Amino acid sequence: MLLIWSSRQYWQPIQRISNNLNTLAQGTVTQPLPLQQDEFVEIVAASNQLGQNIANASHFATAIGQGQLQTQYQPSSQADTLGNALLLMRERLMLVAEEDRKRNWTTEGLAKFADILRAHYTDFAAFNDAIIQNLVRYVKANQGALFILNDDNISQKYLELTACYAYERKKYISKQIGIGEGLVGQCFLEQDTILMTDIPTDYVRITSGLGQATPTCLILVPLKMDKNVIGILELAAFQKFESYQIAFIEKVAENIASSIASTKIAVQTQKLLKTSQQQSEEMKAQEEELRQNMEELQATQDEMFRQSRYMEDLINAIDEVLFTVNTDLKIDIFNQYTKHFFQNLGVNIEKGSDVIDCFPAENKNEYRQYYTRCFLGEKYEMAQSIFGNNYQVQYNPILNKNGQVISAVVLAKNVTEIVKAKANAEKLYVESQEQNAMMKAQEEAMLDTFNDLQKAQDEATEQAKYLNSVLNALNDGIFVIDPNLQLKRFNQLASDFFMGLGLTLTNGMSIFDCFPPEVHDSYRQLYVRAFEGEAFQQKEEGFDSTFLVQYNPIFGRNKKVEYVVIMTKDITQMAALERQTQELLQDVQQKNEEMLAQEEELRQNMEELHATQEEMHRQVHYTNSIVNVIDEVIYAIDKDFKVQVYNQYTEIFLAQRRKSIEKGMNILSVFSSDVVEEQKRYYERCFAGEKFQVEKQAFGLSYLTQYNPVFDEQDNVVSVVVLAKVNSHVELENTAQKLA
């Protein structure tokens, strides 16, 4: 019994320790064994410590597996192989995580700036501002500036500051930097990145509300496109830029250079289109304006021709001697009556005939003096005896716009009958002396009445004048391939594109499955270049479209290319736009040449029309001056009885009788109601083509009225010219009868 009890007391602790160690050996952490003060106490303590160490290592490994790389762990001793291995694993995982963070930071940055560059593709100013602002913020710099090459003048190229962020105003007072001038100009010449950590205090200072300080690091990166530098990117910061940040900035600079080139093309294209449209609109406006001017000039010319025709008919309708003489004493204009008058005297006159030769030799000096007086500006009237008849001759000077006398109008009225009647009237004069006193008194009374009426008329005229006085959001296809040329990643746009072609993209498939076999070799050469570390871009044709493809190598920790990112931008429209721009420029140039030819032709036509218009103006002015010196009623009407033209005497004659006349009014309104129908019949007879004269009473006087039809080129009557003159012979006989 004692032996059995002793055996149990010895083997039971050993069994517990053995079970605990077996459990620990299987990887299961158990509760610590209670410590008893026996010969196994050290073994139990060691077993419990082993379990605790395994538990701590398990918890640490679990935390590391969950990404909690900052979890603290203390090995049990310097010889703790497992603990030290776990710490080494954590350090390596932290390095891998840091590399992943940097790689993800770079990838996200490239995607972010691809989106920014695309969003401001057509607005160059907003494009520059967005680039520098977002880049300074993303790399946690403090200041930034963007310089673009201005090569508008090939002989004077310079770098122009197009956008800046947080620079003080006095840093870049001048927005132009010469090639090779300063760090910016030197970076342009060297075509390589400049990184400075020892910056002169007078180069640049970072300014804030708390003061100023010199930055710690300055980087200048050239913007290169096909080995040509088109600008410089400058960033300044208080902290040093890491190597991955520098690589990212250089990669973004390549994308910026590509986008700037594309944006410049787009902006230039829009400018050319706008200029072309503006020139087209201006040419259309000029054509319309010239067409309207031509129509107005043609209408003016037609109107002046019509008026000239009217005036010519008016002059020919006058049955009195009427002609004009220029300062060289040559006859310019004469009516038919004058021609017949001189023919009856044996003298044939033509335009340009010497007026002095029309008269007898003994009277030539006398007539020369008459014309001299008129050319000096004198208007006068005199009685003359010509070839046995008595004439009342008027000499009227015609002035040009400058007030200079250019010719004289001669109007000769045959007053032979009037002279005879006057002689008879003189015989009766003696007999009428007794009646003169009575008539004089009546005349004075009538004069007073007339003066009162005249005053009332003037007041009415003045009153009338007084009364009349407004990444899947990217629009670029993205592919990532490994060194085996297998797809590792692609975006939705790329997937949708090939889905539309009947091909489903999957990770791990060969990139060559996306293209036909005949282009595999050419694409393989491009991929080899990219995996050798070269970043480049080029235009490619395929799938009935034009693409701008950019190949970007991604380097791993061993500085070898692990992946290649392929970015494709569909520039089919931009390429077509470039072609359209060239075609448009050629078309605009051709149209400009055609317009120049049309403008020259129109200019010549305008000059000819202007000359014709000036001549017509001169003739109309000339003819108006002739008609206005005739002291007889002359007017012309159309088929609607509307007044077309009239002379000054007609206006004065009607005004004295409280009547008025103006262009466009109905001539029948001048006559009293009892004679309107009769007068209308006279006009209708004349419009029927009849030329006649009528003696009639009007306004208390006897008139001899001539009605003359005016024909157009088709011999249609278009107007009627009326010439009304007082029948002096009848009036003198009536006066004589009254005196008798």
Describe it for me?
The protein is of the alpha+beta class and 740 residues long. Helix 1 (2-25) runs parallel beside helix 2 (41-65) and helix 9 runs parallel beside helix 16. The longest helix has 75 residues, at 243-317. It contains 16 helices and 23 strands. The strands form 5 sheets. A 6-stranded antiparallel beta sheet has the order 3-2-1-8-7-4.
State the gist of this model.
The protein is an alpha+beta fold. The protein has helices spanning 2-25, 41-65, 81-119, 124-138, 182-190, 243-317, 336-344, 364-375, 416-431, 433-467, 492-500, 520-531, 572-628, 648-656, 676-687, 728-739, and strands at residues 143-150, 158-165, 176-178, 194-196, 206-208, 211-213, 217-225, 228-237, 321-326, 331-334, 380-386, 389-399, 405-414, 477-481, 487-490, 536-542, 545-555, 561-570, 633-637, 643-646, 692-698, 701-711, 717-726. The chain is built from 16 helices and 23 strands.
Layout of strands and helices, then pairs:
Layout: H1 2-25, H2 41-65, H3 81-119, H4 124-138, E1 143-150, E2 158-165, E3 176-178, H5 182-190, E4 194-196, E5 206-208, E6 211-213, E7 217-225, E8 228-237, H6 243-317, E9 321-326, E10 331-334, H7 336-344, H8 364-375, E11 380-386, E12 389-399, E13 405-414, H9 416-431, H10 433-467, E14 477-481, E15 487-490, H11 492-500, H12 520-531, E16 536-542, E17 545-555, E18 561-570, H13 572-628, E19 633-637, E20 643-646, H14 648-656, H15 676-687, E21 692-698, E22 701-711, E23 717-726, H16 728-739
Helix pairs in contact: 1-2, 2-3, 3-4, 3-6, 4-6, 6-13, 9-16
